Amino acid sequence: MSWLDQVAWDGQGLVPAIAQEAGTGDVLMLAWMNRDALAQTAALGRAVYFSRSRQRLWFKGEQSGHVQRVHEIRIDCDRDVVLLKVTQEGHDPGIACHTGRHSCFFSVLEDGAWQAVDPVLKDPGSIYT
Predict the structure, then answer these.
(1) pTM
(2) Using CA atoms, how far apart are residues 33 and 14, in angstroms rounded to an integer?
(3) Which domains does the chain have, with CATH numbers?
């Protein structure tokens, strides 16, 4: 049995993948991987995800240049979530979110409403043309 066979893929053949910054421990984003995306991530040392909306592989940074270099791949105890320890490249500080922020987790629940608390580091209009 290969290591890929040991992943608990969901009914669509996907597994959620969390990208965590290796240096700071910041949780950058959550995306989805299919078998090919996980295999390519392991082979290339670069984060490759599966876009559910486009139904194709998505090489992180293919448009933005904000590539995620993968240092370590972990799986949780149930084998149904993957954790990637990454270095976010292409901007300093790293931009992982399509909104131009460091992390996709930039909103905090305060007084019953979501409040954006992290700054936009780069205008998304200048990232995605």
Answers:
(1) 0.93
(2) 5
(3) 3-123 (3.10.20.810)
